[in-house]
Amino acid sequence: MVSVEEKRVQAEKILESVLGFPVDIGIEVEVLQYFLKANHPNVAKELEERGAYAYCALRTKELVSILVVLDDTDRYQADIESAQEGYVYAYVYNITRPEYSEFGTIKVDKKLNRIA
Hints:
Layout: H1 4-19, H2 26-39, H3 41-50, E1 53-59, E2 63-69, H4 76-84, E3 87-94, E4 102-107
Antiparallel strand pairs: 1-2, 2-3, 3-4
């Protein structure tokens, strides 16, 4: 199992690859994870069961894309390379139809707006 610290470092590398500059996610991640546990315990449980480290949330009208890092360290370099093209792994929570929520790759722009 990968440590929380290793996942945090990976999340920062992914964000740096997308944004083009270094990022320290620090307290923001703790706030996000607390918010999920307090307000969306079913989502927090789903993430925990998959070993997913949530580090950023993007909201559109009906979807919340929660960017995550998983335990699969063999994919870490590939994830960074994909992030350079704007592709990141996420748990996409469907607000109006939770049963359609799922893990998958989404595309974001350089300002972390979801574009696909």
